[in-house]
Design brief:
This protein has one domain (46-204, 239-322): Beta-lactamase (3-Layer(aba) Sandwich), CATH 3.40.710.10. Helices cover 33% and strands 15% of the residues. By secondary structure, the protein is of the alpha+beta class. The chain contains 10 helices and 11 strands.
Length: 323
């Protein structure tokens, strides 16, 4: 296991990585490398990192708790809460959770990626993010007919959660409903104006820029890859890039230790009643039914092999959690 961690980290040119594995017969932890590019401070399991789309499981869990409390229904049309959503009368809360709305993913627009490269500390409002998605044609129609991963869905869910909680900020909702009850003291959902990372932290790096990742496949040119492996191309430090562009879909900050605590609670049933928890896990279906190796997705939760959880990728950081 240690050899696998080191081999993959070297292949992917990451300065540092940490792994936690807990099993019925024993635990394994691994820390590899350092916290900064060509630095000397070793990584540790309590260093903060940006966890990207793992944040979706936080937002989705809040929504499902509100369902459990009778504050909204999975069958409600999104137009009941957000009349601005294109075709919102035919898109349900459940379809937002399961990535089956057809709403275009604003994250894949050239405008957003160019701005991330030229104005990395910009504080994005939710209205700006939704406008980027609404300007594009639906990814598919009718809603529910396909799977289409879209951060637009989760931004809407975050706004609906705030609306149902009387305007309470999403950060406070997550803290009070999720983090505090589970003792996750190193986890937070930052304000859109903040690009700060609490200490201790691991810095995040990316070769190339965001626009370059928009190709198919989303990889750098071979010449740049060769230069990176040769050590003649340095990565850009993305630590202080503002994650507000991900908001409810990807702006979260946590640690490896806290993510392990979270995913055990998420999948083990500590956050919902037994009935709704069972329905949540049953909602997970293959993204590509014709490919038995494809990941599966459900109500703001994914499945990889036998592990329920999620992944989180954004410039500089990559995190996976599963249980």
């Amino acid at each position: 296991m240690q050899g696998t961690v080191e081999r993959l980290a070297k292949e992917m040119l990451v300065p540092g990585a940490v792994v936690i594995l807990r099993t019925p017969t024993g635990n394994f932890t691994s820390t590899y490398g350092v916290t900064t590019y060509r630095g000397s401070v070793p990584t540790s399991l309590d260093q903060h990192l940006r966890v990207g789309s793992n944040t979706k499981t936080w937002t989705g869990t809040v929504i499902l708790q509100l369902v459990q409390e009778g504050r909204l229904s999975l069958d409600d049309p999104v137009s009941k809460y957000r009349p601005d959503v294109p075709n919102g009368a035919h898109i349900t809360i459940e379809q937002l959770l399961a990535m089956r709305s057809g709403l275009f993913n604003y994250t894949t627009t050239l405008e957003l990626n160019q701005t991330l490269d030229t104005q990395p500390t910009k504080a994005w409002t939710q209205a700006e993010l939704l406008a980027l998605g609404y300007k594009q044609s639906p990814a598919f129609a009718p809603p529910g007919s396909e799977f289409g991963y879209s951060n637009t869905n989760t931004v809407l869910l975050g706004l609906i959660a705030q609306q149902l909680e009387g305007g309470k900020p999403l950060a406070a909702i997550m803290r009070d409903r999720l983090f505090a009850p589970l003792g996750m003291k190193s986890t937070l959902f930052p304000d859109i104006a903040s690009n700060a990372m609490p200490a201790p932290l691991s810095r995040g790096y990316m070769y190339g820029n965001n626009v370059m990742t928009m190709g198919t496949p989303p990889a750098l040119p071979d010449t740049m890859q060769a230069a990176a492996h040769a050590g003649t191309l340095a990565p850009a430090d993305q630590t202080s890039a503002n994650p507000s562009w991900g908001w409810a879909a990807g702006a979260g900050i946590s640690t490896a230790n806290d993510l392990a605590t979270w995913v055990e609670a998420l999948v083990g049933g500590k956050l919902l009643n037994a009935s709704l928890q069972a329905r949540r896990l049953a909602s997970v279906v293959p993204i590509d039914p014709s490919n038995s190796n494809s990941a599966s997705y459900g109500w703001a939760i994914a499945k990889f092999g036998n592990l329920y959880g999620h992944t989180g990728e954004l410039p500089g950081y990559n995190a996976f959690m599963g249980h």
